[in-house]
């Protein structure tokens, strides 16, 4: 009886080890599209996946960013220009991805592109400030995902959305936290809808890393050069007259 029990326990651990190994095979047949590859996380991920042999389709906002990335990677990596706020740009990139991936579909979509400005006290910001942020960080993610979903479904792939710790705690005013909370909500419903089709949806919630979006001059300067002093002296008072 003890022998049978030991064999059962052994089989259980073997099965668990096999399931949790999470080793992806045939990397050279797998296509991954990453948005916002000009700099930061997107750029780093594109180079790392390329090194591992995956077929990286790197979406950059600018031709300069795309050219620089191509200069640092293998011939396998290809670039496309994509502005996630433009429906035409998304449609053109989707067609390009379709032509590249063919019957294989898209194994991975990483919605990484994002901005962090304008950020400031809510009362000091205007509706266009919120619209600008939400267009890139939230509606951009949604439109890119909806457009590429048929290709992801074909490959039984995965969608990875880059949220933030600020998708859990609203530490600052403006559209940034709202956009990241929105990504979390969108990802949660999408995950439930797509699990039946073998598609996974994941979110990444980085803390604070040294990239352009967190660069010290960027956030205060988005509002005005004297942001910090004004924030301290005018906290909870109306928007200062000199605000841009
Ligand atoms: N760094 C952190 O600590 C941190 C923390 C939490 C979450 N995140 C998130 O991580 C993601 C990547 O940010 P990062 O830190 O790597 O900063 P980053 O270096 O500024 O990367 C953001 C990328 O998005 C691109 N982009 C901006 N607007 C775009 C648009 N309309 N269409 C397509 N691409 C656009 C930028 O292109 P250009 O360079 O040409 O402007 C840039 O390549 C963002 O979603 C950000 O919110 C970062």
From TrEMBL:
InterPro entries: NAD(P)-bd_dom_sf, Sc_DH/Rdtase_CS, SDR_fam. GO terms for biological process: steroid metabolic process. It comes from the Eukaryota. GO terms for molecular function: oxidoreductase activity. Signal peptide: none annotated. Keywords: Oxidoreductase. Belongs to the short-chain dehydrogenases/reductases (SDR) family. This is Retinol dehydrogenase 16. It comes from Myotis myotis (Greater mouse-eared bat). The lineage of its organism: Eukaryota, Metazoa, Chordata, Craniata, Vertebrata.
């Amino acid at each position: 009886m003890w022998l049978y029990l030991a064999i059962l326990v052994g089989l259980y651990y073997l099965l668990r080890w096999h399931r949790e190994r999470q080793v992806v095979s045939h990397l050279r047949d797998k296509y991954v599209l990453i948005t916002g590859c000009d700099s930061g996380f997107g750029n780093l991920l594109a180079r790392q996946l390329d090194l591992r042999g995956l077929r990286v389709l790197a979406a950059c906002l600018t031709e300069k960013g795309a050219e620089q990335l191509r200069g640092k990677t293998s011939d396998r990596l290809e670039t496309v220009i994509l502005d996630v706020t433009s429906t035409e740009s998304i449609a053109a990139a989707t067609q390009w991805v379709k032509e590249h991936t063919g019957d294989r579909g898209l194994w991975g979509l990483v919605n990484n592109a994002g901005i962090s400005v304008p950020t400031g006290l809510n009362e000091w910001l205007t509706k266009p400030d919120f619209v600008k942020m939400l267009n890139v960080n939230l509606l951009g993610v949604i439109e890119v995902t909806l457009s590429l979903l048929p290709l992801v479904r074909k490959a039984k792939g995965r969608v990875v959305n880059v949220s933030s710790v600020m998708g859990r705690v609203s530490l600052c005013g403006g559209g940034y936290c709202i956009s990241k909370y929105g990504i979390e909500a969108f990802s949660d419903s999408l995950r439930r809808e797509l699990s039946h089709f073998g598609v996974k949806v994941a979110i990444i919630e980085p803390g604070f890393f040294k990239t352009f979006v967190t660069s010290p001059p960027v956030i205060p300067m988005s509002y005005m050069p004297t942001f910090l002093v004004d924030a301290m002296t005018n906290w909870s008072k109306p928007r200062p007259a000199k605000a841009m």
